[in-house]
Each structure stands twice: as C-alpha cells, then as structure tokens.
Amino acid sequence: MTRMVSHPGPVAEARLARHRLLAAGRRGGPADLDFRPVTTLRELAVEYLSARELVLAPNTLANIETDYRLRIDPSLGNLALAEITRERIEVFVGDLARCASRRRMVVATIASLRAILAAGVEWGRIPSNPASRLRLPAAEHHRHQAVERVLDRDQLRRLITACATTRIETMIRAAAESGLRRGEVIGLRWEDVDLPGRRLHVRRNVTQVSAAGKVERTTKGRRARRVAVSTSLAARLGDWYAESVIEVGAAATGPVWPGRWGGPMDAGSPGQALARTLRRAGLLDASGRELVTFHGLRHTAGSTMLAAGVPLIVVSRQLGHATPHVTAQVYAHLLSDSQLDDAVRVFDV
Known about the structure:
By secondary structure, the protein is mostly helical. It has helices at residues 11-25, 41-51, 58-76, 86-99, 103-122, 143-148, 153-161, 166-176, 182-187, 231-247, 269-281, 294-307, 312-319, 324-331, 338-345; strands spanning 193-194, 199-202, 205-208, 214-217, 225-228.
C-alpha cells in the first residue's frame, strides 16, 4: 500500500524531499529510484540538478545550471532523449563555437552537457553518452585572449605602486605573486599566515552562494597547500597585521582581509579593489577597460614565474594545480620565443 506524504514547500524542494525518502528506503543508487520517467533533455536536466544539489559544490552546480539554461536548453532542451544523437551534438558544438567569444565557454558548456547525459546513462534513461569523447575546437584561435589577461613585471610594479592602502596592496600581491585564487584570498585567516617562515597555509575557499550567504569549503580539488611569499610581501603583511589587528582590534584569528562586519568579504570586493587600482595606475586597454581581472592576477603569477625560469613542477605546487601537466597546458603559450634560445644555450661550449 502506498502512503501519500505532503510537502508544503516549492516543487523543487518537494522533489528533493521525495528523493531523500526514496533513497532512505532503498539500497540501490539513482537508477533504482522511482523517478517520474523523463522524455526530454530539459526534464533530465531538472532531475539531475535536483539530485546533485547536495553532492556538488554550490558554485559547480550554479555553473552547470547557467550553462544549461543559457546555451544548451535553447537548442536541445525540447528534444526527446532518443533524439540527442552524436550527430546532433556535434552540430551543436559547431554552432556554439562559431558564436562563442571564448573557447573556455565551449569547453565548460560541453562538460555540463556531458555530466547531465552521464546521469541519464547511470539512471538507465539512455544506453550511452553521445557527448563523450567529443573533439572540441582547437585552442589556437583563442590564445591571444589568454595573453591579454596577464600583466608583465613592469605593469605589476605600477599596479603595486598605485595601491591606495596596505590592505589592497597585500591582497593584490597575494594573488599576483603567490597565485592565490579569489576564494582562497577571501578565506585566508591570520592563523594560516607564517610571517617568519614566509608561508601561507591555503586550506579553505570561500564561495558566494547568494547576496548575503557564503560557503566555506576546502581548496579546489580538496588539496591544502603551503605557498611561499616574497620577503617584501611578508614585511607588508606584517605591517597590515599591525594596522588591522594591533591598532584597530580586528580578530587575530579572523580573515586577513575581512569584510565590513569582520567576517569574509563579499566575492566582488577583491575585483572591485583591483579595478580601482588598475585605473589609478592607468593600466587600461585601448577601449578603456582594465587590463586584467582578479583571476588574471593568478595567471600573472604563473606566467611571471615560468618566464623567470622557475621549474614547472615548482610553479605547479605554488599554484595548487593537480599536476604539472595542468600548469603546462595553461601557461606554456605565455612564454616568450626567446626562452627557446635559453633552452638550447646549455649545449654551447
């Protein structure tokens, strides 16, 4: 006998509650759950986002939802799952690549589509994933965009000189010299800072999930790491500690760069501080836009270290990449042709 259970919340919450009840009463995985049969890609996407809500990181879930809503659904959402063929997806990739401004957008969108269809395979809705092992557009046509997203050493010096406060200077340098991600900058606490040893213990990433809500998680890939800081940056961090903690009374165990109420600052704050400083330094492109984003400061750190001859494996460790192969893929094209001469100079006798 089936017992009806009511739920007072929205439909999405009711579906998620039903998912939990079914999961609690069955040993099987998602394929065993008594979901309403789906017939279109849109319905599969809705079920996927609901089922993965408590599994994926909030920003990952939000990115997949955005990719689907803006780029996948208009072209494929109404199609029955049986109509989502390999040919149909390859045509979709071609159309997407022709109108996309960045190759990264194409790659991320196809990854989101592949994840949704993979769930369909796991749940027995489709026999195989037609988006697996797709050939995507080559990266060569987009390389100039990556170059524009970094500063050279002279520009970086101008940027640091233009910083209005110790707070802004140390925050920008943590990204541009030590390669911290924005969420890692927001999540860094004074207890993670070893000034005598010139090390930062990067072990948390703060993600903004709403206008007022933030989620603190481990770093990307769940890999905590210790990164080095320069002698001059360590000294300036010491100055900032004296200004903010000793003189003003901020929490000695709180965020290094706190928000207005002492907790983590908003996700947009680092980028806004950088934009003001870039304009103060006159680091703008021909159209009057800032030369680099806050994440571009991390690229600046990586490309500057590699250009100076720092070994790839060391740069990879500093940036917290999973493997040196990732570092090579991201930064190899940013190195100058003159470094090829340096590579073969070792053979001159």
